[in-house]
Amino acid sequence: MTGQQATLYTQAGEQFAPAIARLARAMERDADKARDLEQDIHLELWRSFERFDGKCALKTWVFRVAHNVAADHVGRDARKPATVDIDELDSLTATGEGEVARAETHALQRLHAIIRTLPLLDAQVILLWLEGHSGAEIAEVTGLSSGAVATRLSRLREKLAAQFELPEIDHDR
Amino acid sequence: MTDDLKQIWQAEGAAETFTKPENLMDRSSTFERKIRRRNILEYAAGVLVLLASVPTCLMFAGMGEWLLAGSMGLMVPATLFVLWNLHRRASNLARRPEEDCRSHLSAQYRRQAEALRKVPLWYVAPFVPSVLGVYGTVAIKAMGVRPAAEIIERIGLPLGATLAFFGFVIWLNLRAAKALQRQAEELEQA
């Protein structure tokens, strides 16, 4: 264990632990497996900080590790349903309608369900957006060009807005 | 429901913390546990093949059936070669999860595609000499004793079925390799 490794881990924990927990819950439906995934991410982060070279921001490093570990996890899970293209989101059955669907917990469940049906890269883009990352930050984490992120994000947000009947969305946020 | 998905999203799990480093020291990841389990299963299967082929080889040698003994003996290096490849390929899984997601995913797809594409070479081909040796020896011994048509009928069918099975395994793996290759290319063009 190095001093830098421990410092970075503590710093990352203080800033990003809730986001990592949300990522694990979004990618893995089963609660126990989600907890396992979360701890796998912690473990890989801990190990990776030995190699941290400061060439990118800590935030970028943390989310790259977290999303890649999560991607490996869902990639191995045969139970994962087939993914659905962004344009087919409209045809997904909502898990509930009316007043119940307006509850925040239900909204989260629907978001999780939608995220789990998306192709991995789209799921990563939407999760990073939900965490408040800018387009440039999403590009840095995912490796997509800024243009590709903007296009995907625009399509995904429009579809999400339609799914949740959100008011006018601001594409620059 | 509020009109801000981000707000709802970010409000969840605000009290979560990281696992303490001391609790991570002895932990192996799900990925590592899965690889370990897979290795144990594969080595166990390899040991079973060795346990079956070595005594059979010795038995044929004891009976003076040198061609059959040799054919069964070929199973031993074939099995060891396959086990060595399994070990080598599993050991190659160096993880660098800090690279960007697209590169990471694409590298995963390409690595898996490459392993599947080479299945005919490192998983099927090593057993072919042994299988052909056994069938060939039986055929040679039957020549002059049984009519040719009967030999073809009695050996051709099981030999054809065995080769068809090998062919099916190769076809399945190559098909999966192509699909993974396509996924990697799509990702790289994204």
Account of the protein in words:
The complex is a heterodimer of chains A (173) and B (190). Chain A is mainly alpha-helical. Chain A has 2 domains: 1-80, Orthogonal Bundle (Rna Polymerase Sigma Factor, Chain: A), CATH 1.10.1740; 81-173, Arc Repressor Mutant, subunit A, CATH 1.10.10. Chain A contains 8 helices and no strands. Chain A has helices at 3-27, 31-48, 58-76, 98-101, 104-117, 120-130, 135-142, 146-164. Chain A is globular, with a radius of gyration of 17 Å. Chain A starts with a helix and ends in a 9-residue tail after the last helix. With 190 residues, chain B is an all-alpha fold. Chain B folds into 2 domains: 30-95; 101-190. Helix content of chain B is 78%, strand content 0%. Chain B contains 9 helices and no strands. Chain B has helices at residues 5-11, 21-24, 30-62, 66-73, 75-91, 101-117, 119-124, 128-142, 148-189. The longest helix of chain B is centred in the last third of the chain and has 42 residues, at 148-189. Chain B starts with a helix and ends with a helix. Classes of the chains: A mainly alpha (173), B mainly alpha (190).
Number of domains of chain B: 2
Please give the alpha-carbon distance between the first and last residues of chain A. 40 Å
Outline of chain B, from the CA principal axes?
Answer: elongated
Low-confidence blocks of residues of chain A: 77-81, 168-173
Helix content, binned percent of chain A: 55-70%
Structural class of chain B: mainly alpha
How many helical stretches of chain A?
Answer: 8
**Helix content range of the residues of chain B, please?**
over 70%
Strand content of chain B: under 5%
Entry keywords:
heterodimer, A: 173 residues, mainly alpha, Rna Polymerase Sigma Factor, Chain: A, Arc Repressor Mutant, subunit A, 2 domains, 8 helices, 0% strand, globular, B: 190 residues, 9 helices
